[in-house]
Amino acid sequence: MLSYRHSFHAGNPADILKHLVLSQVLEYMTRKESGFDYIDTHSGAGLFELNSADAQKTQEYLDGIAKLWDYQGENTALVDYVQLIKSFNEANLSFYPGSPKIAEHHLRRQDKGWFFELHPKDLVLLQQNMQGKKSLRVRGEDGFKGLQALVPPASKRAVVLMDPPYEIKTDYQQAATMIAKAHKRFPSGTYMIWYPVVSRSRIDLLEQTLIDSGIRNIQLFELATEQDTEQHGMTASGMIVVNPPWTLKTTMDAVLPELVKYLSKADGFYRSEQLVDE
């Protein structure tokens, strides 16, 4: 199944959570001079035009990045995130970067980026959006399998983002299984799984699978724009982070209440949890 295209959803609240966590992790990794590998298993097109027919059909960005465009709060992480998105635009909000372009912003000459995408149209766009740097490699392959071939990396440092389309229910368990497999090969890497909350029972199973895997030091961050319901699609999304930066939990404890304030309905909520201790 290759029907999912992120162009319909770019810049929505789920993107904000995902990319804010991603930026925090990558910023932390660049504090050390030594290079690292960034592996994006399900990359998408990389950059999205919000005036496109796809984005305008759903206009999900109006409930996401558009509400933060003029953010005047004092949360440093949120200010930095908004400024990052603005760097892809001129005066007005016209473009939203996907995780590959967010990563490119942070990656240095000594770092490597690996980007996987199977959708034929998005693969072409990704190749166009990521061209020009030899350290960034785009592959039209299955990212689940591609990850296993890249760990352990020669750099001995790695950040992995796993963001499958969840077109099929088994993606939830496959994400957990593949992260556990990669972690066994390379225990010191930082691994992130983004997930949508459509059915809470699937998320409970995803969490329990990771807890039962024996992996240590797992954190979970979730933003719900409304209370759980299985009546009308996604109500929340989350990021599970294995081996997170020691700064991440404190940062997200401060960011998530702001995101609920700006992006959620009255019954929205957030979760910031140490799922498994170190």
UniProtKB/TrEMBL annotation:
<comment type="subunit">
    <text>Monomer.</text>
</comment>
<feature type="site" description="Interaction with substrate rRNA">
    <location>
        <position position="4"/>
    </location>
</feature>
<feature type="binding site">
    <location>
        <position position="163"/>
    </location>
    <ligand>
        <name>S-adenosyl-L-methionine</name>
    </ligand>
</feature>
<keyword id="KW-0949">S-adenosyl-L-methionine</keyword>
<comment type="function">
    <text>Specifically methylates the adenine in position 2030 of 23S rRNA.</text>
</comment>
<dbReference type="InterPro" id="IPR029063">
    <property type="entry name" value="SAM-dependent_MTases_sf"/>
</dbReference>
<dbReference type="GO" id="GO:0070475">
    <property type="term" value="P:rRNA base methylation"/>
</dbReference>
<feature type="active site" description="Proton acceptor">
    <location>
        <position position="163"/>
    </location>
</feature>
<keyword id="KW-0698">rRNA processing</keyword>
<dbReference type="GO" id="GO:0036307">
    <property type="term" value="F:23S rRNA (adenine(2030)-N(6))-methyltransferase activity"/>
</dbReference>
<feature type="binding site">
    <location>
        <position position="19"/>
    </location>
    <ligand>
        <name>S-adenosyl-L-methionine</name>
    </ligand>
</feature>
<dbReference type="Pfam" id="PF04378">
    <property type="entry name" value="RsmJ"/>
</dbReference>
<keyword id="KW-0694">RNA-binding</keyword>
<feature type="binding site">
    <location>
        <position position="99"/>
    </location>
    <ligand>
        <name>S-adenosyl-L-methionine</name>
    </ligand>
</feature>
<feature type="binding site">
    <location>
        <position position="42"/>
    </location>
    <ligand>
        <name>S-adenosyl-L-methionine</name>
    </ligand>
</feature>
<keyword id="KW-0808">Transferase</keyword>
<dbReference type="InterPro" id="IPR007473">
    <property type="entry name" value="RlmJ"/>
</dbReference>
<feature type="binding site">
    <location>
        <position position="117"/>
    </location>
    <ligand>
        <name>S-adenosyl-L-methionine</name>
    </ligand>
</feature>
<dbReference type="GO" id="GO:0005829">
    <property type="term" value="C:cytosol"/>
</dbReference>
<feature type="binding site">
    <location>
        <begin position="142"/>
        <end position="143"/>
    </location>
    <ligand>
        <name>S-adenosyl-L-methionine</name>
    </ligand>
</feature>
<dbReference type="GO" id="GO:0003723">
    <property type="term" value="F:RNA binding"/>
</dbReference>
<keyword id="KW-0489">Methyltransferase</keyword>
<protein>
    <recommendedName>
        <fullName>Ribosomal RNA large subunit methyltransferase J</fullName>
        <ecNumber>2.1.1.266</ecNumber>
    </recommendedName>
</protein>
<comment type="similarity">
    <text>Belongs to the RlmJ family.</text>
</comment>
